[in-house]
Amino acid sequence: MNPSRACVALGATVLLATGLTACVPSQPSRADWRASARQALDDTTSEVESVALVLDLESRDRLPGRSARVAAVESEESLASAEQTFTSQQPPPGTGRQDAEVQDVLGRATDLLREARVAVTAGDEASYDALRARLGELSDDLDRVGEDLR
């Protein structure tokens, strides 16, 4: 093999190895994973409770202009970020059940916050009470899953 082909082959190998290692999710220690899970759950609880408050205030005409829509969108985006940060980690061995529970409740929160944002944007005030009740139940579920991680 001539030297220039060897350099090209070596360069391609290095790029491939670098690219493959960049695709591997981080695997935190068990303690770090638990801390990350608790943080994601705490962040999610905050967003869920914020949207419940937004629905309450909006149903009583206590928010000016588009404030409810903006708050609902920001909560939904913040939750998406918290969920992405957590789910991008490789769960340590032995945490499969807990990881599934955390991912399940985060996914349910994502779906419910989307549903609430759609209702607020559409001005569907008839659905606010039911959404607030479901958000309250979800908040309790988030607390329960968080307690299981302690």
Give your account of this protein's structure.
The chain has 150 residues and is mainly alpha-helical. 79% of the residues lie in helices and 0% in strands. The chain is built from 5 helices and no strands. Helix 2 runs antiparallel to helix 5 and helix 4 runs antiparallel to helix 5. It is elongated, with a radius of gyration of 22 Å. 25% of the residues are buried.
Order of helices and strands: HHHHH
The tally of strands reads 0
Mean pLDDT: 90
Derived structural class:
mainly alpha
The low-confidence parts are: none
Number of helical regions: 5
Helix content: over 70%
Based on CA atoms alone, the radius of gyration comes out at 22 Å
What is the first-to-last residue Cα distance?
59 Å
Shape: elongated
Q: What fraction of the residues are assigned to beta strands by DSSP?
A: under 5%
The largest β sheet comes out as:
none
Secondary-structure blueprint:
Elements: H1 3-22, H2 30-59, H3 67-87, H4 96-122, H5 128-148
Helix pairs in contact: 2-3, 2-4, 2-5, 3-4, 4-5
